[in-house]
Amino acid sequence: MITPVSQAEFVAQAEGRLPAMEEVAEGVWCLPLRIAPGRMPFSLSYLVRDAEGGVHVVDPGWELDANVDAIDTAVRAIAGRGARIASLVVTHLHPDHLGLAERLRQRDGAPVIFHRAEQRAQEVVATRASDPGPIQADIEAWGVPEGSRAEIARFAQASARPVVIADVLVDDDDVLPIPGRTLRVIHTPGHTPGHICLVDEAGGLLYTGDHILPTVAPGVGLGGPTVDNPLEAYLDGLAAMRAYDDLVGLPGHGYRFRGIAERATEIARRHLGRSFEVAQAREADPDASVWEIASRLSWSRGWENLARHHIVSALRQTAMHVRLIADGRLDDMRKAWGEDVPHPRPSA
Ligand SMILES: [Zn+2]
């Protein structure tokens, strides 16, 4: 069982309410921020006070005026009137994490910091938005039937988003420029190519971003196309997290928790359960296309009823599982996560 660290956050999450800011550890606060309607109820931002009175914002959250107000109020409460935002650290490129970075940088001059691969990923997504070629290639490779191709292509096309240029690009094992505090970067690709977690050993904290969440299994491959298989990278990244089981998990959504190794295992087994389902479908019909395999998997609403944009996501997910199997990684994944990975049941 994973254990919530804050009962208030846990209850607020369950009720879909925005919890209040809480001090997490000496000099670190958790600030829940709103997300645009129709998404998850809120994101969790973290404020870190440094030895010189500056406040570093980890994941500045969705671009909303209410969130700017919340951050400003919090920074004043933590470090006093006239306190400044010293840096904006972003775990990954999604708008519920990166959203306010540009606006706060322009206003306060604080440097924006994220992983090198996340810079590249944003550029790739921006290029794709104006080039239908790669999507056509995917559709061909997935074996989408002629009659569905145009429609699938429309939903698969990336929408253009402004690229945020980092002031500081970090790599795995770098230490963030925060005076008096050691926050070390762990590159955890999978959810997006340049996703990072942050370790604060002295504070007993692991900032998990959307790599490990307490209430949902994070989606994989959500940062545009990559050369590597995001699912493989993601599972390897989950395995690496088991070394930090004695730390408190500070996720990007949900609530702070203990039980990092157990949660990593739960999430990995969920993904692997799907891999085994795909492996079975391939055994039954070795020549089946990604489209055909996807159509034979269990989906909570049934394949026929999946909305078109969900079909695109279903095809992408299936292709990642097919690749994991084709690359021969299934057996060692099974050794790593348990020989008895259960067959997945579709969620309600
Ligand atoms: Zn998120």
Q: Summarize the biggest pleated sheet.
A: 7 strands, mixed
Cα(first) to Cα(last) distance is: 22 Å
> Which fold does the CATH topology of the domain at 3-122 and 160-267 refer to?
Metallo-beta-lactamase, Chain A
CATH superfamily of the domain at 3-122 and 160-267: Ribonuclease Z/Hydroxyacylglutathione hydrolase-like
Q: Which strand-content bin applies to the residues?
A: 15-25%
Determine Rg (CA atoms, Å): 21 Å
Shape verdict: globular
CATH class of the domain at 3-122 and 160-267: Alpha Beta
Total strands: 13
* Uncertain parts: 344-348
The helix count comes to: 12
Organism: Microbacterium gallinarum
Pfam families: Lactamase_B (PF00753)
Protein name: MBL fold metallo-hydrolase
Domain Metallo-beta-lactamase: 42-253
Q: Please, could you describe this protein's structure?
A:
The chain has 348 residues and is of the alpha/beta class. Helix content is 41%, strand content 16%. It contains 12 helices and 13 strands. It has helices at residues 7-15, 65-79, 95-98, 101-108, 116-128, 133-142, 146-156, 230-241, 260-284, 290-296, 308-326, 330-337; strands at 3-4, 22-25, 28-34, 42-49, 55-58, 85-89, 112-115, 168-170, 184-187, 196-200, 205-209, 248-251, 257-258. The strands form 3 sheets. A 7-stranded mixed beta sheet has the order 2-3-4-5-6-7-8. Mean pLDDT is 92; it is low at 344-348. Zinc ion binds next to helix 3. Residues 42-253 form the Metallo-beta-lactamase domain. It comes from Microbacterium gallinarum.
What's the helix and strand layout?
Elements: E1 3-4, H1 7-15, E2 22-25, E3 28-34, E4 42-49, E5 55-58, H2 65-79, E6 85-89, H3 95-98, H4 101-108, E7 112-115, H5 116-128, H6 133-142, H7 146-156, E8 168-170, E9 184-187, E10 196-200, E11 205-209, H8 230-241, E12 248-251, E13 257-258, H9 260-284, H10 290-296, H11 308-326, H12 330-337
Parallel strand pairs: 5-6, 6-7, 7-8, 11-12
Antiparallel strand pairs: 1-13, 2-3, 3-4, 4-5, 9-10, 10-11
Bound molecules: zinc ion (ZN).
